[in-house]
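**User:**
If convenient, please work through this fold.
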Amino acid sequence: MFIIAPSLLASDFSDLGSEIKKVYMGGKGCQYLHLDVMDGIFVQNISFGAPVIAPLRKICGITFDTHLMIVNPIRYVADFADAGADIITFHTEACDGAGEILKTIDSIKARGIKCGLSIKPATPTGALAPFLDKIDMALVMSVEPGFGGQRFIEGSSEKIKELHEIKTGGNYGFDIEVDGGITLENVKKVRDAGANVIVAGSSIFGAENISGAIEAFMSI
């Protein structure tokens, strides 16, 4: 299934409720909403946390695809689960070794929600390999995490292709998500490489016609 996940980071923060409704469109729009949580430590910027997400959960039934760009993410799994996250994705680089990664995966799964695992552009796909049978989604960052509006890093498609080959060869069931610099000009490239969950920020929330932008993405 091909899924578009608009990134709330690119929306108008003065009216988040209306912005979410624009992409959800009464259930006829996007299925996922990508929520970038930044702590100012793992990445330079600070965005928003569970207290902001919780009231948004009441607005619609869109899947909250929550991307934690924070150190020691296991500390906040319960908070984001209680806030309404449907998927919690965290970074391999934010954890102190494989043991902590496994504990965080188990903590997320124990809450009955899906678990994703992400890598930065400089991290090889091999960092995900030991955990691919335990996660629901692998997220390839195609920009350096922490800032919206960056240009797509060429070479990211190769990492997606590598993951897709591993997924197919091992008969795994995880989704492959790509996040960063995705536009109507390059979305076909990452889709053809094997990504099926596409995060797009300014290309959707920055469009004059948001529903038209969503339809354009879905038609490619």
